[in-house]
Structure formats: C-alpha cells, structure tokens
Amino acid sequence: MERKDFPLNAQMLALLAHKLRTPLSVINGYCEAALAQDKKALPLTTAKALQEINTQGLLLAQQVDKLLAFNQVFAMQEQDLQKQEIPLKDLVKKVAAEALAQAEKFPKPAEPENPGLRSGTFIETDCPPALVVTADEKLLRLCILELLSNAIKFNPRAEKIIKIQCVNHGDRISVSVRDYGQGIRPQDIKRIFEPFYQVDDDFTGQVAGCGLGLSTVKQIATLHHGSVSVVSDRGLGSIFTLDLPIA
C-alpha cells in the first residue's frame, strides 16, 4: 500500500507537538499540586482559577497527543504495522475503562432537573468472548478509544449511554459504537473524516478539539484494508462502525 501524503509538513507537526508537551506538563503539574492542598486554604476565586487552568491544560495536552498520533499514523505504511492476534472482548473492556477515566478528568454537565434520572456515563459492551482479530493492537486501541471519547464528548445529556457491539461476519469483524447524543447533520457526515474538519453548530461548536481523531481512525482502518462509517439521526444519536478483516 502506498503511503498517503498529507499537505502539512510532518516534521513541523512533530516538532510543534513535542515543544508543547514540556510546558504543558509543568503547568498541569503545578496546578494539580496546588489543587491537592487543603481547599479551605485557598481563596474561592483562586481555587476556581486553578481548576479552570488545569482543565484547559489537560484539554490542550489531549490535543497535543492527538496531533502526535495523527502525524505518526499518516507517516506509516502497511509494512510498519505490528499485527498480532487480539482477543477483542478484553481489549474493548480495557479501552472502555480508559475512556471513562479520561471523562472523569473534565467538568460534568449540570445535574438533571429530574432527581430520578441517572447522571453519568455508562458504557455497555456486547462482544463474543472468543472473537479474535489480527491487527496492530496499539492502533486498534487508539481507534476504539477515539470513537468512545467522541461518543462521550459530543453528548450534552446528564445521562450518557454508550453501547459497543462487536460482530463476527466470517472474514471480517465490526466494532460499532452507538451513542444517544445530538447526532450529526447530513452535510457534516460527508466531511467529518477529513483532517481538521469540525462540526460547528449550537452544541458541538462548544466542544474542544482540532478535528484530527476521526481522520486518524479512517487512516488506521485503511492501513488494515478496512473502513469506518457512520449513520446518524439528529437528536437521536450516531453509530460509528469500524470494519476490519478478521485475519
């Protein structure tokens, strides 16, 4: 498979990302240390300012990681993949736990007006225990994590329900991530897998990001001779499906 060229300078992107990592580590480290002190010892405005600096610092660090991943994946060729047999159920469970842990770092939506309604993120998995796929484990993990992170991030509801389903189609497998969030407009579906494209509307325009995650997922799928697709209804949610050869 020929390497897919990308118009931005790969060395420039890598240098930029690495240069940002060090100051971000210092900023986030000092913020977390300050916030770990007795909250009563800090003025309320100071505590709020530190929390916001820490939150924005973590978001920026997350985008730097995505920039590095994007750069690395688009520089890869098929022969660079380190394929191995992967028990899919175990991987999905681990990535789901990682996605939930990431979500806990950021502010939660306001409490629901209905006290009987659950608040939080709930990931349900449906994956046959014997299902094994041959793929690059690091890259497959990145794909599933990105799809789960998006399902959480682009859902403004207090109760976020996400379902992961893995299906064996004989010569290939599919991993579907379903959410019940805002959904995606038809005109945006055509472009969401383009690098740096971001949906901009009343809700999603408020979500931090730089539009690299889904293009990275698509490139990883392509490297594996697979694909990624989406079906979505505005107001009802979306289903993203990663489709890969089983061996």
Task: Give the overall shape, derived from the CA principal axes.
Answer: globular
- The helix count comes to 6
The largest pleated sheet is described as: 5 strands, mixed
Fraction of residues in helix? 40-55%
What letter string, H or E per element, gives the SSE order? HHEHEEHEEHHEE
Structural class of the helices, strands and pairings? alpha+beta
Spatial extent as radius of gyration: 19 Å
The N- to C-terminal Cα distance equals 17 Å
Task: Report what the structure shows.
This protein is an alpha+beta fold and 247 residues long. 43% of the residues lie in helices and 21% in strands. The protein is built from 6 helices and 7 strands, in the order ααβαββαββααββ. It has helices at 10-35, 44-75, 88-104, 137-153, 186-189, 213-223, and strands at residues 83-87, 120-126, 132-136, 159-168, 172-179, 227-233, 237-245. The chain has a 5-stranded mixed beta sheet with strand order 2-4-5-7-6, covered by helices on one side. A two-stranded antiparallel sheet has the order 1-3. Strand 6 and strand 7 form a beta hairpin. Helix 2 (44-75) runs parallel beside helix 6 (213-223). The longest helix is centred in the N-terminal third of the chain and has 32 residues, at 44-75. The protein is globular. The protein starts with 9 loop residues before the first helix and ends with a strand. The mean pLDDT is 84.
In short:
The protein is α+β, with helices and mostly antiparallel strands. Helix content is 43%, strand content 21%.
